[in-house]
Amino acid sequence: MRASLIQIDVNPDESINSRRRRVGSLVREQRGSDLVVLPELWTVGAFAYDLFADEAETLDGAREGTREGALDGTTAREMSEAAREAGVWLHAGSVPERGADGVLYNTSLVFSPDGELAHSYRKIHRFGFDKGEAVLMGAGSQLVTAALPELTLGLATCYDLRFPELFRGLVDAGAQAFVIPAGWPERRRAHWTLLARARAVENQAYVLACGTGGTHAGVEQAGHSIAVDPWGEVLAEAGPGEEILTVDLDPARVAETREVFPALKDRVLGLEAPKR
User: Fold this and answer.
1) Which of 58, 105, 109, 208 is 20 to 30 A from 253, alpha carbon to alpha carbon?
2) Using DSSP, how many helices (H) and how many strands (E) does the chain show?
3) Ranges for the CN hydrolase domain (predicted)?
């Protein structure tokens, strides 16, 4: 299975419409890959909070984690067409979504090779503590997996990477690989690569973590998209700027790693907290 991670340089001097068209062209150029992955909030920039509401898109009738409903968003339509024309599964990163309840969500979109919206995932862990995304956007509540012909993907987004229990839940739901779009800042880049490898090692799964380059809203981006195998070995890592990583994944590698070193079988659940 061949996967391509497109690390986008989110340049504030480039219009959002121009970037949509350019990224659509980059996706179409990946014909021959099975899976293409884009970063988090690449249309607006993950820290461009003032653009979230104005650029929010709707997924008319779509429910979290399902393919139901029609597409009603500029990015969604462009990415749907790009996936179909390239003949790839496309994790189109995430977009600001305005839900039917009027709440904004940080929502990832997964399109099948025929261009249909196969899955959506609303980010569960919102970054910012008492500001930014944490107060501007609602939280998702469902774990989402996407069963491709070769691998079952577990979906997570950026700050989710810091919460290992989410990934354990995805493993229990059958995930063999994690796809993690992000807009991770340069000042915490060491955490980005460390945590990506940790999630691969502890869950014995592939990690495909795709970030952004450039500087937007005054925040320098880490770049350094990374692909890690189930043993924790780095298959490929990008630099700081716009770049495309293409890696070959062996689905049998997951089962082989879990069989040779069956640590997941030794999990102990339901431990009691110490009495005080």
Assistant:
1) 109
2) 6, 15
3) 1-251
Q: What is the DSSP letter of 50?
A: G
| Residue boundaries of the structural domains of the chain | 2-264
Place of tokens 């780095």: 234
Closest to 111 measured CA to CA, from 152, 74, 78: 78
Q: What is the pLDDT of residues 234-261, one digit of tens each?
A: 999 999 999 999 999 999 999 999 999 9
> Which of 248, 270, 211, 273 has its CA nearest to residue 9?
211
pLDDT digits over 166-209, tens only? 999 999 999 999 999 999 999 999 999 999 999 999 999 999 99
Q: Note the pTM of the prediction, 2 decimals.
A: 0.95
According to CATH, the topology of domain 2-264 is: Nitrilase/N-carbamoyl-D-aminoacid amidohydrolase (3.60.110)
Residue 110 pLDDT > 80: yes
| Parallel/antiparallel/unpaired status of strands 117-122 and 104-111 | antiparallel
Rounded to the nearest integer, the mean pLDDT of the chain is: 94
CB-count exposure of residue 64 (10 Å: 0-12, 13-18, 19+): middle
Q: What is the pLDDT of residue 5?
A: 99
HSE value, Cβ hemisphere, 13 Å, CA-based, for 10: 28
Helices 16-28 & 74-86, crossing angle to 10 degrees? 20
Question: Catalytic residue positions?
Answer: 40, 123, 158
